[in-house]
Amino acid sequence: IKPLKHILVCTNERNDGRDCCSHTGSYEIFRELKDWTKANGLSGAVWVTRTGCLGFCNNHGATIVIYPDQIWFKEVKKEELQKIKDIILENLK
Questions:
Q1: Angle between helical axes of 26-39 and 81-92 (0-180°, round to 10)
Q2: What are the mean pLDDT values of the chain's consecutive 10-residue runs (93 residues total)?
Q3: Which one of 33, 53, 62, 80 has the largest count of C-beta atoms within 10 Å of its C-beta?
Q4: Cα torsion 16, 19, 25, 28: sign
Q5: For residues 63 and 86, what is the distance between their CA atoms, to the nearest angstrom?
Q6: Cα separation of 62 and 24, whole Å?
Q7: Which segments of 1-93 are extended strands (E)?
Q8: Which residues pair with 49 in a beta bridge?
Q9: Phi then psi for 76, rounded to 5 degrees?
Q10: Which residues fall within 8 angstroms of residue 60, CB to CB, at 6 or more apart?
Q11: 70 near 27, Cβ under 8 Å?
Q12: How many CB atoms neighbour CB 5 within 10 A?
């Protein structure tokens, strides 16, 4: 089954001092989005996948991409997830 939306959340980890999404709580962001899709019956229509580096390394927030729309979000903090959830729901219509 092909999803209508595929959300990629960078959870890349680096232990050498360089910036990375894992230092910004990106795994918690991934979990919240994953749990949100399940709780709202969207699991088949919206897939949430954690990824390695998406190329926008920072220490401010996670990098998230929504496909097939190719909507990129950089430096996402957990408190900003509602905006992303709203965009996903709007684009499912």
A1: 40
A2: 92 83 91 97 95 88 94 94 93 80
A3: 62
A4: negative
A5: 17
A6: 6
A7: 5-10, 46-51, 62-67, 71-76
A8: 8
A9: -80, 130
A10: 24, 75, 77
A11: no
A12: 20
